[in-house]
Amino acid sequence: MALEFLTEGLNFKCVDADLGKICADNCQLKLDKCQEICDDPNCTSRCQGQWLDCVNACPCYSGCPDGCQNCPNSICNSPLHHLLIIDGRMSEWNKGMHWNSYTEEIDYRNFDYQVNEFDIEDSCYVMLNGEHWLIGGWFNPNGVAKVEDCKVSRQSTTLELPFHGGMFGSCAAYNGKIWTCFDGKEGRANQCMTFDGVRQEIVAHETTRGHDWADLVVYENELVTIGGCDGEGEERECHGFTEIYVEETGWYSNLGSNFPVHALSGHALVSDPRGIVIITDTENNKTIYRLDFIDLPSGEFVYRWDTLGKLRAPALNISATNLLEAVFVGYNKLERITTGPFELTSSIVYDTGLNLRLDHAPMLIVDENFCKE
């Protein structure tokens, strides 16, 4: 019944039929996951009802027959449903790799890295207010640039404090500002700075532990960091400490949220509806975990750690981003991950047979025609 409805219910003449198909496929995935944990007919019936409501709310189905026009479905909020991946190795050819989520096809588009002006290696990428920012980097730690008109455009503004590590540290868009945090150089593994495109400010509150080689993520409007390292060189000590930022009082940790398995570094953090997904690299056995936030009837919540599975492909210095209710991970391959209650599904969406080596490559969320000639 479900698969037949996916095609019979879709208005293929609708202008947003491609989005409708993606939306319905996501609903089908949720149905499959829901039914996997059912052990009685009532549960199966509830899954079917949730699936039917999900599909009907998709553009070009019965709840939104005119497509995205006046449709509240989140898939219609933005045309930014595709990826443009840029990387220092592709700069030799001035190309960016565009992945089309509608067709699942890859093409290489002209992109001017202007490497003589701005070296993006290990820079930290943030999208803020619809603009693509590249902050710091190994060879240009005070550099600030934007991706504009299919090129790296260096800005006249420079960072007051160098951000050598870039992706070895962390950056995130939070409360209308870019946060650059935890660069282990010069003893700044506990420190953050904010930047709104003009003004820079050192955050008064420092973390309890250093988080160099960690990551930042925004989850339910809170800024969270997990893992990372204190110190440098032989004195570097990594940990699994979790800290959450509160504007009035600074960083705090609940011991139940600390990483339970081993010290954590070189990982990527992304959020999903259940919690924070932690993607570890090859050195940490490519395992993917999630820190779940369990609501209690009292209004409080507890933490639960789940092991979801492993990456299919080897990864080191990984890049990751959320897109269309999935997570895309890049290193030697481009891999798509969809997380369920206690597990994940994954597939390689691009494999040339060659190693891409996307070391901390910026993964820009863009529209279908971005940099298209």
Structural features, described:
The chain has three helices and 24 strands. A hairpin with a 3-residue loop joins strand 14 (237-246) and strand 15. The radius of gyration is 21 Å and the shape is globular. The mean pLDDT is 85. With 373 residues, the chain is mostly beta strands. It has helices spanning 2-8, 17-36, 41-56, and strands spanning 82-85, 95-100, 105-110, 124-128, 131-135, 144-148, 151-154, 170-174, 177-181, 192-195, 200-202, 216-219, 222-230, 237-246, 250-252, 268-272, 275-279, 287-295, 301-310, 319-323, 326-330, 334-339, 344-350, 363-366. The chain has a domain at 2-76. The protein starts with a helix and ends in a 7-residue tail after the last strand. The strands form six sheets. The chain has a four-stranded antiparallel sheet with strand order 3-2-1-24, with no helix packed on it. It comes from Oikopleura dioica.
Tag the structure with descriptive keywords.
single chain; 373 residues; mainly beta; four-stranded antiparallel beta sheet; 24 strands; 12% helix
What is the strand and helix layout of this fold?
Elements: H1 2-8, H2 17-36, H3 41-56, E1 82-85, E2 95-100, E3 105-110, E4 124-128, E5 131-135, E6 144-148, E7 151-154, E8 170-174, E9 177-181, E10 192-195, E11 200-202, E12 216-219, E13 222-230, E14 237-246, E15 250-252, E16 268-272, E17 275-279, E18 287-295, E19 301-310, E20 319-323, E21 326-330, E22 334-339, E23 344-350, E24 363-366
Antiparallel strand pairs: 1-2, 1-24, 2-3, 4-5, 5-6, 6-7, 8-9, 9-10, 10-11, 12-13, 13-14, 14-15, 16-17, 17-18, 18-19, 20-21, 21-22, 22-23
Helix pairs in contact: 1-2, 2-3
